[in-house]
Amino acid sequence: MLPPQVITLSRLKMPALLEVLRADTTLSLRLYEEVVAGEDAVRKGRVSGRRALDGVAAAPVVGTPASKSYAAPFSSQTAVVIGGDGLSHPGKDFMVLDEMLFDMAGIGGLGKEWSDHATWAFPLRDDGTLDTPFNRTLATWLSKTPEPRYRARENRPYPLRLLVPFKTCSLAQSSLIINAHPDYGFIGNVQSTGTLPDATAIVARESVFPSLILTPPATIAPDGTATVTVAVVDANGATIADAACDVLLDPVAGTLPKARATITAGTGSFKVMALGLGVGEAVRIKAGIGFFTGLADITIPVA
After folding, report:
1. In the chain, which residues have pLDDT < 50?
2. With CB atoms 3.0 to 4.6 Å apart as the test, which of 8, 141, 165, 248 could cross-link to 291 if both were Cys?
3. pTM assigned to the model
4. What top-level class would CATH report for the domain 211-301?
5. Structural domain spans, the chain
């Protein structure tokens, strides 16, 4: 399996301390707001609360998606002020602004959204509270919108992104991109493996997600059939020996008997046919993993 990474950014504009706690099957995200003497603990216009995403749902709350459940909200009267000594900010006081739990016990309720080669975004609402996580790769599957363009159009910050190489991975086997405020940073039980001050998930993807190498024959006969081998590889081109997934195939020219190739122990194969193609033309096939298409592209001359 690909070694997970924790990549950190310091570009979050919201002035809050971020806490990330990761276990094998759960991931919690918590925002702390600094309590300043003479100011309200909960700033005007914000709704501070407790939120959980379990993928299936407890009893849905009216007016909210079924994948969310809410406990009693925090308020300036009931919230507990926490000393900053234990939060790596001695001399300051904080209170919980919002928190969220992502639990793999409920991923069956996510349907195909829990997929291979997926970037999950954990966005903030306009009021600074945490919104529902979603598979950003799936959200741009049809449009192929690049991430910088998508985030600019959506105009919501992501304090956390979860990069899932394969849907069989646990959360501990997946990578994180943590985007913290430059003055407050983040705390938790994960350690940064690298800092990318000007990076986006596109830069990180090359090192934490699998890619594909397709090996076709030199040529294919008119109306003939050929076999193409597939290897699921890491950023260095080495086969990921324990990779097990489906490679989705897209015929640009030529015919495919099957639309996907099953990968076992990092390798697999599929057949292509040059039906209706003559000498001088070519079979062309594109391949991807999950909802991330176009990872590899081959052309086989018809001769």
Report:
1. 41-78, 198-199
2. 141
3. 0.82
4. mainly beta
5. 6-208, 211-301
